[in-house]
Design goal:
The complex is a heterodimer of chains A (80) and B (415).
Chain A: H1 13-28, H2 34-57, E1 61-68, E2 72-77
Antiparallel strand pairs in A: 1-2
Chain B: H1 11-25, E1 29-40, E2 47-52, E3 57-62, H2 64-67, E4 79-89, E5 94-104, H3 109-124, E6 141-146, H4 151-163, E7 168-173, H5 181-197, E8 206-211, H6 225-233, E9 238-242, H7 250-254, E10 257-258, H8 262-269, H9 273-307, H10 309-357, H11 359-365, E11 369-373, E12 386-388, E13 400-404, E14 409-413
């Protein structure tokens, strides 16, 4: 299983959120050119939307590791 | 006075009978005192030390086969009760206590072992802050090594689910009690890293070792030296969450972060979703206002530039031309007008002069003009035209002439 990073939506929450913090920092800085400002703003808005969606739709996933003879371990959904 | 010859003994004979005497009478002793001058024989591994009180001391030895059973290593100053027997070493003629068991006084045996292991690992630098790995702010995958049953796991799931439902929680079930617990915990930490390496598990951001509260014996598996070393070597940040707030284990010291309880661990490793949403709100607000501010400031600068002297010079030049042009047209008008009026005046004065010299004016004075009819052949084109007669000789007898006076004309006949 490989993680695609090219699409914004596939970005991990940590990445997105850290990027947002960075964008805000850059927007705050004096020497940000107008075009960059607009670009950053657009990127930021897009990321905010993605983050909101992720937070609002998130549900904790729990998996359990069980030992198996074949591969050493298997990962199954946890059921209490 | 007769005397029997005294019995002469060899040293060996004496020591042997003393040995017999002493060892027969002190086959089993409980001795209380303080350990001093403690030494471990490097080759044999036997312990040699002295047990003393305020006034007296006695040598002691603990053979390797016995001291391997100890959970701790004795040290100088330790108050102990030892169990053993008194033996004599005939080769040197001294006696000593052969120790079978050592019980520390005051704190329990486990406590001693705990303190000793703690000290040892501390000195090796396993607890150094410089080795502590930081925990990610927004973990994606966390793995908890704990018992499958019991409140710890449920509490952990509840707290993480409430605070940060984005999380993927992996459970590595182990037995956390009993003699096998330490080795199964150790194996779990190693296994998790292997599973990540083999891509069976995704990248794990935080590893949590958790167990509910209990006595020092219950928590003992978390004071295992091997486990401590495995945690120290672990590439994944480890959080130790064992027992209650007051319970400290070796795991707590060697882990990258100690959580006072398993629920607290769940809180320490996750950001709070409500705070995140708040931050997103703040971001939307601030970024909008920053951009607005920036746009406003650009607009202002633009206005300033527009109003600056240099940018207005071309306009000024044009205005100058306008002004000049206006001036020109004004003066052209003026000049022309004055010319015209000059001419008018001139014309007026000419007219006046002309009037003075005009025949009409002379007639007024009494002069008269004699005219006669022009002959047809003389002026072919004009009929009935009276021509001025300038010489008397031009007039013949009986010729009719017209005499023009100032007021009117009269006809006359030449005689």
């Amino acid at each position: 299983m490989t993680v695609k990073k090219n699409k914004e939506k596939d970005r991990s929450f940590e990445d997105s959120f850290s990027r947002l913090e960075k964008i805000l920092e850059e927007l705050e800085s004096e020497d940000c050119a107008l075009e960059d400002t607009i670009k950053l703003y657009e990127e930021g808005l897009n990321l905010t939307k993605i983050c909101y969606d992720k937070l609002n739709n998130a549900e904790l996933r729990i998996k359990e590791i069980t030992k198996s003879a074949k591969s050493g371990a298997e990962i199954k959904d946890y059921t209490p | 006075m007769s005397e029997n010859l005294p019995e002469i003994l060899t040293v060996s004979e004496l020591n042997a009978s003393i040995k017999e005497l002493i060892e027969e009478n002190f086959r089993f002793v409980h001795l209380m005192g303080e350990i001093s001058n403690f030494k471990i024989h490097t080759q044999s591994g036997h312990y040699y030390f002295t047990i003393k009180d305020e006034h007296s001391q006695i040598s002691a030895v603990m053979w390797k086969t016995r001291n391997q059973q100890l959970l701790f290593t004795p040290e100088d100053g330790m108050q102990v009760v030892v169990k053993g027997r008194v033996t004599v070493y005939p080769a040197r003629g001294n006696y000593q206590v052969e120790v079978w068991e050592i019980k520390p006084q005051g704190a329990g045996e486990l406590q001693y072992r705990f303190e000793q292991l703690k000290q040892k690992l501390f000195e090796e630098g396993l607890f150094d802050e410089s080795h502590k790995k930081p925990l990610p702010k927004y973990p994606e995958n966390v793995l908890i090594i704990t018992s499958r049953t019991g409140a710890v796991l449920q509490d952990f799931i509840n707290v993480t689910g409430r605070r940060y439902p984005l999380l993927n929680v992996y459970l590595y079930p182990v037995s956390v009690q009993g003699s096998a617990a330490a080795s199964s915990l150790t194996e779990a930490v190693i296994m998790v890293q292997n599973l990540v390496k083999k891509n069976i598990l995704p990248k794990i951001d935080v590893l949590i070792l958790a167990r509910g509260g209990g006595s020092i014996e219950d928590l003992w598996s978390f004071n295992d030296e091997k486990l401590a070393r495995v945690i120290f070597e672990c590439k994944i940040p480890v959080v130790s969450a064992v027992g209650h707030e007051v319970d400290y284990t070796i795991c707590d010291f060697v882990a990258d972060l100690r959580a006072p309880t398993p629920s607290a661990a769940a809180e320490l490793i996750t950001p709070d979703i409500s705070k995140l949403i708040e931050n997103l709100d703040k971001f939307s607000y601030f970024s909008r206002s920053f951009v607005q501010q920036k746009l406003d400031s650009y607009k202002n600068s633009l206005r300033e530039i527009e109003g600056s002297y240099y940018f207005n010079r071309p306009k000024d030049i044009i205005y100058n031309f306008y002004q000049k042009l206006d001036d020109f047209s004004k003066s052209i008008n003026q000049v022309t007008l004055s010319r015209v009026s000059n001419f008018k005046n001139l014309v007026k004065s000419y007219k006046k002069t002309l009037h003075h010299v005009s025949p009409q004016n002379n007639l007024k004075k009494g002069y008269a003009i004699v005219k006669k009819k022009v002959e047809m052949d003389e002026m072919r084109l004009q009929f009935d035209f009276n021509k001025i007669v300038t010489r008397a000789a031009k007039l013949k007898k009986n010729e009719v002439i017209e005499i023009e006076f100032f007021d009117k004309s009269k006809n006359a006949k030449i005689t």
